[in-house]
Amino acid sequence: MFGPQSPFVMYDEELKSITAVIEKLRRESNSKVIFLVDKNGQLIASVGETGHLDTTSLASLTAGNIAATGGLAKLIGEKEFSILFHEGEKDNLHISIVGGRVILVVIFDQRSSLGLVRLRVKRASQELDQIFADLARKTAEVEKSGGLRGPFAEITDDDIDNLFR
Amino acid sequence: MSFINYASREINCKIVYYGPGLCGKTTNLQHIYQKTAPEAKGKMISLATETERTLFFDFLPLALGEIRGFKVRFHLYTVPGQVFYDASRKLILKGVDGVVFVADSQEERLDANIESLENLRYNLEEQGFHLEKLPFVMQYNKRDLSNVSSIEELRGLLNPDGVPEFEACAMTGEGVFETLKAVAKLILLDLQKGRR
Ligand SMILES: Nc1nc2c(ncn2[C@@H]2O[C@H](COP(=O)(O)OP(=O)(O)OP(=O)(O)O)[C@@H](O)[C@H]2O)c(=O)[nH]1
Ligand SMILES: [Mg+2]
Questions:
Q1: For residue A3, what pLDDT band results from cuts at 50, 70 and 90?
Q2: Which of A44, A65, B43, B108 is most buried, judged by most C-beta within 10 A?
Q3: Ligand 1, residues B79, B171, B179: which to mutate, most atoms within 8 A of Cβ?
Q4: Do A148 and B11 touch (CB under 8 A)?
């Protein structure tokens, strides 16, 4: 997300703000589930009735979907398709790209509508975009001061071997 | 590019299995899936053709344990090896943290291995990665067959830099976890050094 080599970092504070934004979006758009995924398929946050959902698989397939349609877009000379909509018998999926960085997925049924979701997503996207821009700046600053070694600076070979016991 | 989540105290890393068609990438993941405890794995997703060739990718999420209070997760992907799926391979490589090259040891697949390795190098460079700088391990698969090239020959052609290498028979699982462990270790060591 911030160049090929540097990790994507999430902190408590930002996750709270992000979750608040998508929870508000869920209420205002009358939707069932909302989740945010990074473009590599890692789940960032989710709200709503996620108990019965395999969110890890959802995240990976969403990213695959966006990657594939992004590839299609380039082939026809578009930068990307910023919104995808999949209509089901009961549930629908609204997928959009926020600030070119992350993927916002809204699952909704007949209690909402495409128009309403689209409208609310637009506003939430601006807020999310801001949060991710701040996060990118914060990560870059921490990295510059050499502090991004995080929790792993101290790990030993034994720690790693223990993972595979 | 790994994802360090201080909020949920998790770290996610992406490992991609690369190699020519039918070399055994999907079989590697299937074996890992079968031999991993239920609580340590998620669902394995295979987007495949009707003849079980990988069409887009296989995906297997693993949560092997914790290091220093951080849950360590690996997302394993395979690419489709068939030459004409190159556009999909490029997509799967995005954000990769470590690569396993699965070579098909059969003599008649020597050219296919070399071509696939060149393709890997090329696709990585297109995204600003260099194979030499990535955690990278080599697996010589299908060692159970009789028509295989010698390890010396394979090494000379596919692994001149001497990255960690493993002989394997993915069908029985021999060498599969050794390979995974080696690439995971390289990724974590990179994190330790603050390189990723
Ligand atoms: N004898 C033998 N056969 C193997 C071994 N590993 C895989 N195979 C077989 O090789 C065939 C292809 O394996 P896959 O894992 O589907 O190959 P792949 O690399 O995923 O192929 P693509 O998806 O087309 O890129 C299958 O029939 C496997 O059973 C091995 O170690 N020894
Ligand atoms: Mg396959």
A1: very low
A2: A44
A3: B171
A4: no
